[in-house]
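Lab manual, section 2.4: Encoding a predicted structure.

Procedure: take the sequence of the chain (358 residues), apply the prediction step described in section 2.3, and record the output as structure tokens. A sample record is shown.
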Amino acid sequence: MSTQRRAPIGQLALIGAIVLLLIAAFAWAAGWIGKQRINGGDVIAALDFNGGKHPGYRRAHAKGLCFSGTFAANGAGEALSVAQAFSRGRYPVIGRFSIAGGNPLASDGRNVFHSMALLLNTPDGQQWRMAMDHTPIFPVADVASFIAFQRATKVDARTGKPDPAVMQPFLAAHPEVKAFQDYMAKAVLPDSFANATYYSINAFRFTDRADTVRLVRWQFVPEAPLTGLDKASLDQLPRDYLFREMIARTAKGPSNWHLQLVVANPGDVTDKATVAWTGPHRTIDAGTLTINAASPEEADACRDLNFDPTILPVGVGLSDDPLLAARSKTYSTSFSRRAAERAGPSAAGRYLGAEKTR
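Recorded output:
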């Protein structure tokens, strides 16, 4: 009798333990216990706090210009990856140039990074989506720091600068941000989207036919020589200068970049976008990107594209960099919200619309 009674009690205790475990797991996933996790909505809220709300536009890199063209792979990239994008051939691309910030009406006369996003399609039905900046490093290494960065750098309308009472403690706690600011102060600010080098920022895992895995960063290096804007007179630059310049340049002829794959050396930091790789590296020129058309977002397919850098072909995988997952969640949240909103004209749309009325 006692044995028969203990069995149900033991079973009930086991069931109870399982229920408690499931409740605890749910509470952790919801962020109610343990270290609170940050989702895409948290990042969007921080971006809105910094740059204001602009319904219908991307929350980051809100000011953009669509383009299209081709990527001509030369086959050399097959030494690092089985992705068809590296097999010799020509592949269509759709992309977007943009400048940092969440304000689609902002002036181009700001010392911020310029960006290139790409969607590359291959005949095997796979996609490679990229989101790159013209700086080889990023100001922060994780999503919590990015949110804090957005809040600390909010411009005070009375002074035109961030509040030093907020900014100074933030910089003291984030020396990597100060290092990025120092880099931006000294680096050339490209005077065209066409003459900037665009970096993957994050590292990615490349797998070759022998299943050898290597950590790689890539960069698109322009054929056009780099020339810079005068930083001392950025406030005098026409508001949409970069967009007008690229539209006019593309109307005259195509712009080209070479895709260079940079293989990590032993000891290189591969999980922090704040750290540059220095010194000689194995570098492979994998092909040429050609852009031959540029148009306003409202008239082109790039407006409805999410350039999520975690959408990758077989042969290219994610590294351990925590920013990649954060970028994916943020881009997804931004896409979902702006899809339900109505946007006004883009910078390029304003310019071309004005041209048509002349």
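Check your result against the sample. The chain has a mean pLDDT of 86.
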